[in-house]
Amino acid sequence: MDAQEILNLYATGHRDFSHVSLVQVCLMNAKLIGVELIGAELIGADLRGVNLTEAHLNQAKLNQANLADAEMIQACLSHADLSGAYLSGADLTYADLSGADLSGANLGGADLRKANLSQAVLSGADLRGADLCGANLRGADLSSTDLDGAYLDQADLTGADLEGAKIDRAGLSGAKMPNGMVHT
Q: Does pTM top 0.90 for this prediction?
């Protein structure tokens, strides 16, 4: 299946593209609101500026995909592989990224307010300037993550691994720290 086929089927009302192989496909700026791409292979895909609001991408393979400036509000990406993905400037407010692999991903300036990142792997990820206010990061692996200038106000970091993370200049007002204490 190629990009044009996906877009044509979507235009006719088709929404379920679960388990399709779209390796290195270019869907830049496509509007795919509510699409189902569960278990789909989107490795190395060019998804810059795509609108995947309320999309279902559970267990999708998006490693090395370019999702810069993508709109993924309330998208479900639980247990998705986003390792090495480029998500700079992406809007992931209220997205479910629980158990997702975001190791080595670039999330600089991404909007992750109220996102569920519980048990997610973010080791070595770039989260500089990202907005994680109110995000659920319970049990997340944030080891060696760059959180310089990130906003973690009211975030829940209970049980999160912050070993080697750059967190000195992050906003932490009201955040629940790994030890359960609230940062003041």
A: yes
